[in-house]
Amino acid sequence: MKFGQVATCIALALGLGMLLSGTAVASTLRISNGGQVGSLDPSKVDGDWENRVVGDYLEGLMTEDPAAEAVPGQAASYTVSPDGLTYTFKIRDDAKWSDGVPVTAADFVEGMQRELDPAAGNSYAYLQFPIKNAEAYNSKKLADFTQVGIKAVDDHTVQYTLGQPTPYFLQELTHYTAYPVPKHVIDKVGNDWIKMENIVANGPYKPTENLPGSYIHSVKNADYWDAKDVKIDDVFYYVLEDQTAALNRYRAGEFDILTDLPTDQYQWIQDNLPGQAHVKPFLGVYYYVMNQSKAPFSDKNVREALSMAVNREVIGPSVLGTGELPAYGWVPPGTANYPGDQYHASWQDLSHDDKVAKAKSIMEAAGYSDANPLKIQLKYNTNDNHKRIAVAIAAMWQPIHVQVELFNSETRVHYDALQSGDFQVGRAGWLMDYNDPDNMLQLLETGNGNNYGRYSNKDYDALVAKERVTQDTAQRSAIMHQAEAMAMNDFAVIPIYYYVSKNVVSPKVQGFVDNAKDIHRTRYLTLTP
Amino acid sequence: MLSYTLRRVVSALPVIFIAVAVSFFIMRLAPGGPFDRGRTLPPEVMKNVLAHYNLDLPIYQQFWLYLVGLVHGDLGPSMAFYDFTVTQLLLLGLPFTLTLGFMAFLLAIAVGVSSGIFAALHHNRLPDVVLVLVVMLGVIVPNFLMGALLQLIFGVWLKWLPAGGWSSSNPLSLVMPVVVLAWPQAARISRLMRGSMIEVLGTNYIRTARSKGIGERLVVVRHALKPALLPVVSYLGPGLAYLLTGSLVVEQIFGLPGIGKYFITAALDRDYGLVLGTTIVYMAVILLLNLVVDVVYAWLDPKVRYR
Fold it and tell me: In this structure, what DSSP letter does residue A524 have?
């Protein structure tokens, strides 16, 4: 071939490539998805970036609507027994895997068995513990899975039996821990069912390529029961943890949605990309725990003084700059099943100066002074924002005779210290797993592995236990309010702010509904060219 | 020649063993484990997880199992990425990291050597000053900032290049990562080249060559270049090692599928298998490069062979 011919071929190929990519852009959604997805196996994941991919290709009996409320997904209908213990689901007739095989009840049972398998050690298995005997099976106290409260009544009927009525159970079924898995594929290839060449989807998108460190690519599943309403043809979930780089690529038109934003450029985004930053309340609390198994934090007064002296009003607007909401209570605003007023501390409305004065007098009554300050170590996991907050709070505590030594370590080391009780005051955060106050309240129960501060109050534990078996919504809510107030009045923790979700959404994307769970399934989105 | 090569290979084996052992035990000694996260695992479940990865065995037994696996070419499972084994992850990413590293290497040599010569020839005049400034920029601006700046200029404002990402159909996506990676190395090579060229140009034999009336170009190319290149050549080994292992930031900013980032992320995640695997792969690559360099030296200089 002569040089001229080669050049012509290359030019043609390039032109064709540009044409193809030009036509594909119209319906390809490109999400900057944060961290690298650890697995496509729903029992192996625990991050919101993983949920975005897994929840687009697998669908539970219940799924999220655009506002992330629970609605039937693979289920055509369901009934709940009057005692609230038995949930019976009919699977849709048109529910199919992407290889054309119908979705059956056995797929849901298989999914649950894999989730609860004690040998697999799945970190989120506990979310399904409301199911009867699930906990016993997961902790090897029970070897027979047929004793666990999930049953394939027939091919199209799944029945769950709960240990006790759980008002948020439908919510829990939207979670990936309750997703079905393709039993017919697993029977054939075992754990390799998750490999690209074997993977099948019952959700709106099917993964076709996974390039670790770069992206996962999923394409529309024509066999999905609601495929006719799915507008976007394919999705790229990009791996990118550098927020500045992500914003640059968004501005270059390479991304349609950013799932986080560089905090220091929030103002710039508001000024230059008006309406594109979506900073909204998100179900989670950023807080400090105090180790109450040891002095001085076994003393409630010290905890009270420390909590009172934290000027929460400046953290969101000034220290972080993204407007996180100040937290005085434990259950984030917007939490479902929780009618009634938010917790309001008796000292909340005092001016900051008055709060400091009061805190100071409490500390002085406990014997602390400038000559004899309370010396504490504050631990946080290495991160710029955690550091800024720690420095600010250390300064807020100085006037009440508290001398703070800051101690930072990597995440694994930090949580290892919190779990083993090797700390005085430590940073923690909790993003809710299911939209119900119980998910927050359980964190302060005696013996809960995530109760780092070792807060222990029998009356509180009793209230939480009672809330779990109360079916009347109003009554249950009242009990939970009582429990929350009890823990807050005990200064069990120092809540600092309620998290916000931080998305940047291109004006091309339609159907993006802000919600407190920050779940936005691709099937509801459309792209205007 | 062959026996020299064999000797070198054999002497590398204890080095590999010691490096594996040191990395293995340092990782295990570090506080925190792969499953210490924000959400505590129930003790029973934790026990199961540890057993699944053999982490409940005495550490010497774990080490033995690891060595046995290694000899069979099995680098074990990753504790953070369940869908791939460590071997698969590295096989997917290594070709990419090598491509990126070698391209940056070639660019750094080409730019470094030519700009160094050019600056030396215009010693202390305007072109020299300008080049020194550009070169210094590569050394003092950290690559995460350089990456973001180039993204902004060429990706966002000018729209000449993709601002990031990797697509096999678009080689242009490699331009910025290669430039960012190569710049500091090009800067170092350029400084070495400039210094040694200035020195060589001041020697007697160059003055002799000039006095014979040979043109400036011939003087530089035929007489000065080779001796002036010596310090640069000796720098290339460590320079290449740096390029291959230093791609972490570039990979993260541009969202590239290489293995450089595992060095940091896997260590922070306490993903024991992946950290060790990455270390071993890099060690093997660097030992191999050293071997090649040594063999080339031996071929050039017989004295080395018999020492």
Answer: G
* Closest Cα in chain B, distance from residue A81 (Å): 31
What are the sequence ranges of the domains in chain B? 97-265
Confidence of residue A3 (pLDDT cuts 50, 70, 90): very low
CATH topology of domain A281-501: Dipeptide-binding Protein; domain 3 (3.10.105)
Q: A214–B144: do the CB atoms touch at under 8 Å?
A: no
Q: Is the peptide bond before A180 cis (omega within 30 degrees of 0)?
A: no
> In whole numbers, what is the pLDDT of chain B averaged over residues?
87
In chain A, which residues have their Cβ closer than 8 Å to the Cβ of B89? 212
- pLDDT of A502 strictly over 50: yes
CATH superfamily for domain B97-265: MetI-like (1.10.3720.10)
Range of weakest confidence among A45-49, A484-488, B243-247, B274-278: B243-247
What are the sequence ranges of the domains in chain A? 3-238, 281-501
Taking CB atoms and an 8 Å limit, are B36 and A449 in contact across chains?
no
Q: Write down the pTM of the prediction.
A: 0.89
Which of A196-205, B94-103, B115-124, B242-251 comes out lowest in average pLDDT?
B242-251
- CB-based contact B33 A17, cutoff 8 Å: no
- pLDDT above 90 (res B285): no
10 Å CB burial of residue B264 (0-12, 13-18, 19+) is: middle
Tokens at residue A389, please? 């907050």
How confident is the model over B193-219, as pLDDT tens digits?
999 999 998 888 888 888 888 888 888
Tokens 């204890």 found at: B14
Contact between chains at A121 and B268 (C-beta distance less than 8 A): no
Cross-chain CB nearest to B39 (options A210, A416, A450): A450
Best interface-test mutation with A: which of B36, B86, B250 has the largest number of A CBs within 10 A?
B36
Residue A79, beta-bridge partner list: A88
Question: Closest chain A residue to B169 measured between Cα atoms?
Answer: A17
Backbone angles phi, psi at A379, to 5 degrees: -100, 140
Q: Which two tokens stand for residue A121?
A: 């050690």
Report A:352-371 residues touching B (Cβ under 8 A): none
CB-CB neighbors (< 8 A) of A252 in chain B: 151, 155-156, 159, 162-163
Q: Is the pLDDT of residue A339 over 50?
A: yes
Residues in chain B, overall count? 307
H or E element: which one contains A158? Answer: strand A157-161
Q: So what's the pLDDT on residue B302?
A: 65
A131: DSSP letter: B
Under 8 Å CB pairs connecting chains A and B tally to 165
Give ∠ CA A165-A170-A174 in degrees, rounded to 5.
145
* A185-232 residue pLDDT tens: 999 999 999 999 999 999 999 999 999 989 999 999 999 999 999 999
Taking CA atoms, what residue in B is nearest to A119? B48
State residue B303's pLDDT score: 65
B144 touches chain A (CB under 8 A): yes
Q: Which of residues 219-248 of B touch A (CB under 8 A)?
A: none
CATH of A3-238, picked from 3.40.190.10, 2.60.40.10, 3.30.540.10, 3.30.70.790, is 3.40.190.10
B177 touches chain A (CB under 8 A): no
Name chain A contacts of B31, Cβ cutoff 8 Å.
409, 412-413, 416-417
Candidates A373, A331, A37; CA nearest to A210 is: A37
Tokens 């991050």 sit on residue: A47
Q: Does B155 contact A118 at a Cβ distance shorter than 8 Å?
A: no
Tell me whether A36 touches chain B (CB under 8 Å). yes
Contact yes or no for B263/B245 (Cβ under 8 A) = yes
Q: Between residues 386 and 425 of chain A, which touch chain B (CB distance below 8 Å)?
A: 409-417, 419
Give the ipTM of the model, two decimals please: 0.88
Return the ∠ at Cα A123 (arms to A122 and A128), rounded to 5°: 80
